[in-house]
Amino acid sequence: xxxxxxxxxxxxxxxxxxxxxxxxxxxxxxxxxxxxxxxxxxxxxxxxxxxxxxxxxxxxxxxxxxxxxxxxxxxxxxxxxxxxxxxxxxxxxxxxxxxxxxxxxxxxxxxxxxxxxxxxxxxxxxxxxxxxxxxxxxxxxxxxxxxxxxxxxxxxxxxxxxxxxxxxxxxxxxxxxxxxxxxxxxxxxxxxxxxxxxxxxxxxxxxxxxxxxxxxxxxxxxxxxxxxxxxxxxxxxxxxxxxxxxxxxxxxxxxxxxxxxxxxxxxxxxxxxxxxxxxxxxxxxxxxxxxxxxxxxxxxxxxxxxxxxxxxxxxxxxxxxxxxxxxxxxxxxxxxxxxxxxxxxxxxxxxxxxxxxxxxxxxxxxxxxxxxxxxxxxxxxxxxxxxxxxxxxxxxxxxxxx
Length: 402
Fold this sequence. Notes:
By secondary structure, this protein is an alpha+beta fold. The protein has helices at residues 24-31, 66-72, 79-85, 110-119, 149-158, 160-166, 168-176, 181-193, 197-212, 216-221, 224-233, 294-300, and strands at residues 5-8, 10-12, 18-19, 43-44, 46-50, 58-59, 91-98, 104-106, 132-136, 140-146, 246-251, 256-259, 265-277, 283-286, 316-319, 322-325, 334-339, 344-346, 354-360, 363-366, 370-373, 378-381, 388-391, 396-401. Helix content is 27%, strand content 28%. The chain has an 8-stranded antiparallel beta sheet with strand order 6-1-22-19-24-17-16-15, covered by helices on one side. Strands 2, 5, 7, 9, 10, 11, 12 and 13 form an 8-stranded antiparallel beta sheet that branches. Strands 18-23-20-21 form a 4-stranded antiparallel beta sheet, with no helix packed on it. Helix 6 (160-166) packs antiparallel against helix 9 (197-212), helix 7 packs antiparallel against helix 8 and helix 9 packs across helix 11. It is elongated. One of its GO terms (biological process) is carbohydrate metabolic process.
């Protein structure tokens, strides 16, 4: 019978990450012995836990790639997972520490991911979809999904720069024609994203000056603080205007959002646990120096308008210490597990393989062997294995992806 084992995981030093000890990624990575030291000048953006070919975790005891180990020990996945996904781990879990906005992006559906990979394999390097979920570990900010049409119409009417970029007639038609809102919004958004850089630059500077002249209440209505922050990070980038089209969401620790196929989004700031299907497919359109594919993005996008609160994804209590976040896809689920100090309990048995990471607290795993739980430690739990946890003198918080 397979046993629980520890993983050695890799980090990503993207430009949007937090620096040095300010990063939750760096602190957990050091504590969990994934890195030997923290460089105060280095940016620490992501800690990856999984078997994605790009940066697979390692079996700590042997140094073997987790993806290779699974091929030789595929029973770890469980029959249910193997029947649906074959001999590969279908999910990837990450810790993210964000100091500046990620790109405005969308992830394609499974069918369209296969098409993009076939047509442009050098850009879209795998054929899988990438639904994903984020649970905040700190105060967390994001753009997610199109705003209700009424809100978008308000901003289009009140910000004259949009009329200069998009044109009065198209905006007026969007305001009046309620039966074709999706199609008209698509035309407006595409025209915005494909406008000449000089026009966008002039419009952004004009809007920025007008924001400075507003009273505090008006500045809040027009999200002046967010606009100025994005403009500072990405000067002259059309993505700065997207805050008036997409919902601006602020999560408290423990709150979650789910991002299905074709949902426009951009993480802005904060720390989170993220879980996704095993893919790295991204179609970008702004707030990035990377490759931008506006035509593909607008072809993919879901242009339905919905309020910000509809984007929150609520967990369900499985028992007194486990909250389950199960999205409407079979690739993954995520559980937040909080166990009080000095407790002894069994984790719920899963019929598929899972990975756990400790965020806070101390404890021990008693399965067929004893393993120490402490912040940053990451473990693989084979399918159908029951483990008992003994919590130390402070409460234990961990996340389980499966």
